[in-house]
Amino acid sequence: MSSQTNPSTISERRALVAAMPDWLRRSIGNASDISTVQQIIKQRQIHTICEEGRCPNRGECYAQKTATFLLMGPTCTRSCAFCQVDKGHAPMPLDAEEPQKVAESVQLLGLRYVVLTSVARDDIPDQGAGWFAATMQQIRKLNPETQIEVLTPDFWGGKQEGFSAEELQRQRIETIVKAQPACYNHNIETVKRLQAPVRRGAKYDRTLRVLEIVKDLDSTIPTKSGLMLGHGETEEEVIETLQDLRAVQCDRVTIGQYMRPSLDHLPVQKYWHPDQFEHFGKIAKAMGFSHVRSAPLVRSSYHAGEEE
Predict the structure, then answer these.
(1) What is the per-residue pLDDT across 165-198, written as a single tens digit (0 to 9) for each?
(2) What distance in Å separates the CA atoms of residue 60 and residue 95, rounded to the nearest whole number?
(3) Contacts of 188 (CB under 8 A, 6+ apart)
(4) Measured between alpha carbons, how far is 121 from 155 in angstroms, rounded to an integer?
């Protein structure tokens, strides 16, 4: 009997859903808005993190003319223990037409604000930095009024004679900064103590360094990061993380609840109450973050195009 039909597995999945508090249960939104986007991306064989990550807000975002495209295929070369995105096998070759397909999709959907993210592609020499820039260029050709936010990997690793890992990382980030995104996002995801079990292949200080490099290259570009609560962090650790983000001039922050995608992912250690999210939001605002989104269902791109 397959795991799909195993009664014990089904029972465990039902138990996961049953354990969720009421404030995490919501409709995914207007079915027509969702099906329109799904049809367009399926026809062009491109991907959105909204679908790959099964975001609970995707219907709302589609209705507000925003979406987050997942570049360079749906398979990640890293294996973070919280993430729904496919991993564990070789990623797809790059589709040379993907930047154009994404641009056409933006035009067809009439999107006003677009977020470009990607899986980690450690197998590509520049880890996909040039792909971000190329996609931004194509979007602007067809959609000159559309604003583009990027949510990138850390671009760490790889070897090139004559360059250190730090120099290569800076070059990759600079490629995207020169393309002038409306906002540069790189998520810290969790507190320092929990980085190793939650973010395999990523490091706390390295994430802070990405945000610091962006500001060093162009201080006018807003930077952003996001936290998932529910991995066992304390209130003091959350506040410390917010302080560390502000120390590298991070402008915007999102704080949301981790929701276990499947039995293969890390279990939820705690469901934080909405009042606690509101509390963290007030603390973040007092620290000087210009844009703060803090609520259980908030995700990295939630209301990304809105003014505070």
Answers:
(1) 999 999 999 999 999 999 999 999 999 999 988 8
(2) 29
(3) 204, 207, 208, 225, 226, 227, 241, 245
(4) 9
DSSP output for 210-259: HHHHHHHH-TTS-EEEEEEE-SS--HHHHHHHHHHHHHTT--EEEEEE--
Residue whose C-alpha is closest to residue 218's, from 168, 256, 180, 191: 180
Q: Are 151 and 136 contacting, i.e. CB atoms less than 8 angstroms apart?
A: no
Token pair of 73 as six digits: 């295929």
Q: What is the pTM of this model?
A: 0.85
Instruction: Calculate what percentage of the chain has a pLDDT beyond 70.
Output: 76
| Per-residue pLDDT, 306 | 61
Q: What is the pLDDT of residue 8?
A: 47
Task: Assign 7 to helix, strand or coil.
Answer: helix
- Distance, in Å, from the CA atom of 293 to the CA atom of 303, rounded to the nearest integer, reads 8
From 67-71, 90-94, 96-100, 257-261, the region with the lowest mean pLDDT:
90-94
* H/E run at residue 287: helix 274-287
d(CA 245, CA 11): 41
